[in-house]
Amino acid sequence: MRHTLSVLVENRHGVLARVAGMFARRGYNIDSLTVGVTEDPTISRMTIVVRGDDEVLEQVTKQLNKLIDVIRVSDLKAEDTVEREMALFKVSSDVSNRSEIMQIVDIFRARIIDVAPKSMIIEVTGDETKIEAIEQLLRPFGIKEMVRTGKVALRRGAKGVSS
Amino acid sequence: MTGPTERMTGARAFIECLYREGVDTIFGYPGGVLLPIYDELYSSNIRHILVRHEQAAAHAAEGYARATGKTGVCLATSGPGATNLVTGIANAYMDSIPMVAFTGQVPSSLIGNDAFQEANITGITMPITKHNYLVQDVKELPRIIKEAFHIASTGRPGPVLVDLPKDITTDLIDFHYPEKVELRGYSPTYQGNLQQIKKAAAEIEKCSNPVIYAGGGVISSGAATELKKLAEKIRAPVTTTLTGMGGFPGDHPLFMGMPGMHGTKYANYAIQEADLLIAVGVRFDDRVTGKIKSFASNAKIIHIDIDPAEISKNVKVDIPIVGDAKWILSHLLKHTGKAQSEEWLEKIAGWKEQYPLHYLESACRDDIKPQYIIEQINEVCPDAIIVTEVGQHQMWAAQYFKYTEPRTFISSGGLGTMGYGFPAAIGAKVARPDKVVIDVSGDGSFQMNSQEMATIVQNNIPVIIAIFNNGFLGMVRQWQEIFYGKRYSSTCIRDSVDFVKLAEAYGALGIRVTKCSEVRPALEKAIASGRPTLIDFIVECEENVSPMVPAGAAINEILDLERKE
């Protein structure tokens, strides 16, 4: 079972190390972790995807809350959350298959952000399944390099995790 | 005291902050980057105890904290000074003891350059502190120190480290000490949920086999009086963990001693047959629970703890109550009647009679039984503060001394730190000079910090060191005897040092005791001397701590290890 946690933390040096260190020390596995500043420059938001049953989730949440720099921890349920991930794919391509790749890019509402004689870089944003789907389709052309950001998520509607 | 906006150096501001926090004593060791602070200490009213190894500074600060309830303070220089504190900090973290550790650091401009005596001590101590700080601007210094003391002493107490680059101590500041702490991510819960308390009260009135299982949280929250009232009101027997010793009177008829690996048989049997376990300020340590699946498997469990993360961490809890133990127990007292426990108490009385803690006293004609020494200490000075190292002697001190007051038993529980007791005893004696303070020690543990003899002699701190000298690393030897066919691999340390001469070399009083008849006179002489004293008790070398539950077994699967005549 995977859980998405939205964690508001003080925007200070060393906080990421504290959070990551807590996971490492207690043997919890992070699937992905993204961090960036929020609308309040003194606060950062971490989106952490963690794998485990409800007991693991409960302990992770409590241990996060114990950290002095952690302001709030929320477990985001899929049904009331928007989630996105971004990926960049550097794909082998030349004149013979460029248009075929462009069609796939169109279908997925992705973007080509760099073209070279023997490769192109594609940017795609979406949920995890969408990124996996385009990856499947691009793989036969030859993925030279790829990078994924990990999930970012916000609760739907007016209510946020900080309210 | 300095006015609110006087201009001063960071080092001076450091001293001012300590004044504001009511610090009267710090334990430390100087070094290059601490020179500005040590120069200010020279003319301050704060007592600085110079130890001989930084590890001892941390343990002494902890002993001070445990004896008083105040926050202990230690100070070490950058690099090796700071890393030498690590064991002491980890010890305080595991036992939830309020401590603020200050470390010197290389100047800000050199941080990250592998400068001479640089260590990333905030990185190193992240997993073993409640929180830590690297001061990056002298203007932040008062706020950080205020926060450090607040975090260390509130909620679940613990150690906080503040790392001070040298330039921070020499830069100038318009000193102003904040009145309030503002930490938006930190607000411990003190008041327990009343609904949960009422639920707990209803369970108590329904049950017939209650057991109260109390730990160090009772002592840190000052809840001993409420615990006693509760036990007497609901008529429940009480068992206290190693760190909870003194949280309930050891001579009370409802007291069952310690549970777990070296607990009493009756405490363990009671837990296993309980239908209600009232756990107060405990964390269900594996040395208590044994095989977790079989632990108190017939009982509903009420867990009172200030740290929400302890709830259902190791053992699934039926009624959690998060908050301060004193607050919760006093409210539980208002809402609960008594349990239906008279038959149960009779059964426990029967177990106590059938399975008392005992040792082969008849063998004590010549060879000294270590348990006998503890009983004699108890008779000679029942009000003493007993501090222990780690090992067999520690368990005997827990089993055979009757602690009647909180803060009279100081021992390394969670981390099991050999070398802890002597420096912790120094801290306890500095904090409570009115008390007899005895470090109950093994010959192995003592050698881990024996250099602190110099500290007690130089500062005239009359700690009594009672070495239970069996020529072995006793607890490991015991395990080797039972589980490894007496193959005593690297545990024999016989004749490694003449402890009496060692004491005398440092200028302390040294006494050797080889006969039972000499035990009591030696203790009386040590107390009467008023001097730092080391007593080298030559005890039977293969005595075992009994009873014993093997690691991983259920706590009622108990081995009896008594030797036959």
UniProtKB/TrEMBL annotation, chain A:
Quaternary structure and interacting proteins, as annotated: Dimer of large and small chains.
Domain ACT intervals: 4-78
Family of this protein: Belongs to the acetolactate synthase small subunit family.
A Gene Ontology cellular-component term: cytosol
Catalytic function, reaction form: 2 pyruvate + H(+) = (2S)-2-acetolactate + CO2
One function term, GO molecular function aspect: acetolactate synthase regulator activity
InterPro entries, alphabetized: Acetalactate_synth_ssu (IPR004789), Acetolactate_synth/TF_NikR_C (IPR027271), Acetolactate_synth_ssu_C (IPR019455), ACT-like_dom_sf (IPR045865), ACT_dom (IPR002912), AHAS_ACT (IPR039557), AHAS_small-like_ACT (IPR054480)
One family name in Pfam for this protein: ALS_ss_C
Gene Ontology biological process terms, A to Z: isoleucine biosynthetic process; L-valine biosynthetic process
Biological role stated in the UniProt entry: Catalyzes the conversion of 2 pyruvate molecules into acetolactate in the first common step of the biosynthetic pathway of the branched-amino acids such as leucine, isoleucine, and valine.
The enzyme's E.C. designation: 2.2.1.6
Pathway(s) annotated for this protein in UniProt: Amino-acid biosynthesis; L-isoleucine biosynthesis; L-isoleucine from 2-oxobutanoate: step 1/4; Amino-acid biosynthesis; L-valine biosynthesis; L-valine from pyruvate: step 1/4
Record-given protein name: Acetolactate synthase small subunit
Automatic annotation (TrEMBL), chain B:
Protein origin, superkingdom: Archaea
A Pfam entry, by short name: TPP_enzyme_C
Cofactors (names): thiamine diphosphate; Mg(2+)
Cofactor binding remark: Binds 1 thiamine pyrophosphate per subunit.
A GO BP annotation: L-valine biosynthetic process
Reaction catalyzed: 2 pyruvate + H(+) = (2S)-2-acetolactate + CO2
Residue ranges constituting the Thiamine pyrophosphate enzyme N-terminal TPP-binding domain according to the UniProt record: 8-120
EC number: 2.2.1.6
PROSITE patterns to which the protein is assigned, alphabetical: TPP_ENZYMES (PS00187)
Top-rank EC class of the record's enzyme: transferase
InterPro entries: Acetolactate_synth_lsu, AHAS_TPP, DHS-like_NAD/FAD-binding_dom, THDP-binding, Thiamin_PyroP_enz_cen_dom, Thiamin_PyroP_enz_TPP-bd_dom, TPP-bd_CS, TPP_enz
Cellular component, GO, one term: acetolactate synthase complex
Residue ranges occupied by any Thiamine pyrophosphate enzyme TPP-binding domain in the UniProt entry: 390-537
Keywords: Amino-acid biosynthesis, Branched-chain amino acid biosynthesis, FAD, Flavoprotein, Magnesium, Metal-binding, Thiamine pyrophosphate, Transferase
Pathway, per record: Amino-acid biosynthesis; L-valine biosynthesis; L-valine from pyruvate: step 1/4; Amino-acid biosynthesis; L-isoleucine biosynthesis; L-isoleucine from 2-oxobutanoate: step 1/4
Domain Thiamine pyrophosphate enzyme central: 197-332
GO MF terms, alphabetically ordered: acetolactate synthase activity; flavin adenine dinucleotide binding; magnesium ion binding; thiamine pyrophosphate binding
Family as reported in the entry's similarity comment: Belongs to the TPP enzyme family.
Name this polypeptide is given: Acetolactate synthase
Organism: Methanolobus chelungpuianus
